[in-house]
Design a protein that fits this description.
The chain has a single domain, classed as Rossmann fold. α7 links the parallel β9 and β10. Strands 1-10-9-6-2-3-5 form a 7-stranded parallel sheet, covered by helices on one side. Strands 4-8-7 form a 3-stranded antiparallel sheet, with helices on one face. The protein is built from 7 helices and 10 strands. About 45% of the residues are buried. Bound molecules: fructose -6-phosphate (F6R).
Length: about 240
């Protein structure tokens, strides 16, 4: 695992954006795996700046988001569709037909999961997957459990995740209780992974990734199995890692 410790969130975001930009320059038709949540917002902001300055072209890239709440309509301001358009897609020259996010407003979630996995396969797999880390160690919405799913699936959210995500909702009861998420195997099949971790509240769980122990109770520890992963943290997030 390649570990980069930055002084603060802004530095972390700039570093991550540089890696993503490099990937797009090497392969203009790159397939990117994207995350929502507060962690990558600064990175997306940096990418938008590069695009506006004419330094980065998104016209040929394809994107797949990790997850979406179930059930939620795309135009709902709490949906990850809305989030991604607000924080990235509506500010860059991406082709709207190349954006993929699980549809959280379908009757048959299983069908949607199979469709999503097929689309990732047809796109040739993900070149670079951007991830955030849940406070309970989840990746995407692969929640701590005695067993994890390999492919895209419908999952109940744990109470910790519902509580953590309630900050984006008026009321905790409004937080959806289910989500569609890419599975751990779909994530681990990405050619490269970029895990971003920020803030002291993630310090203890972040340290678990570097202990050499792999457990489904902390899904992020499975990332140690990946041959090309870079973890970019700010100092606060890295504060519990044994030196
Ligand atoms: C989001 C996602 C989640 C978040 C994680 C951290 O698409 O899949 O795993 O990355 O919950 O969220 P933040 O960045 O808000 O702390």
């Amino acid at each position: 695992m390649n570990k980069i410790i930055c002084n603060n969130y802004i530095e972390m975001s700039r570093y991550a954006a540089q890696i993503i930009a490099k990937q797009i320059k090497v392969r203009p038709s790159a397939v990117l795996g994207l995350a929502t949540g507060s962690t990558p917002v600064g990175t997306y902001h940096e990418l938008i700046k590069m695009n506006r300055a004419g330094k980065l072209d998104f016209s040929k890239i394809t994107t797949f988001n990790l997850d979406e709440y179930y059930r939620i309509e795309k135009h709902n301001p709490q949906s990850y569709h809305y989030f991604m358009h607000k924080h990235l897609f509506s500010h860059i020259n991406i082709n709207s037909g190349s954006i993929h996010i699980p549809d959280g407003d379908v009757d048959c979630a299983d069908e949607e999961c199979r469709r999503y996995d097929c689309m990732i396969e047809q796109a040739g797999g993900i070149d670079l997957q951007i991830l955030g880390l849940g406070a309970n160690g989840h990746i995407g919405f692969n929640e701590p459990s005695s067993a994890l799913f390999s492919n895209t699936h419908l999952t109940p959210l744990t109470i910790e995740t519902i509580q953590a995500n309630s900050r984006f909702f008026a009321n905790i009861d409004d937080v959806p209780k289910y989500a569609i998420t890419m599975g751990m195997s779909s994530i681990l099949q990405a050619k490269k992974i970029l895990l971003l971790i920020t803030g002291s509240s993630k310090a203890k769980i972040a340290a678990e990734i570097f202990k050499g122990r792999i457990t489904t109770d902390i899904p992020a520890t499975l990332l140690q199995l990946h041959p090309d992963i870079t973890v970019i943290m700010d100092r606060e997030a890295a504060s519990c890692i044994a030196q």
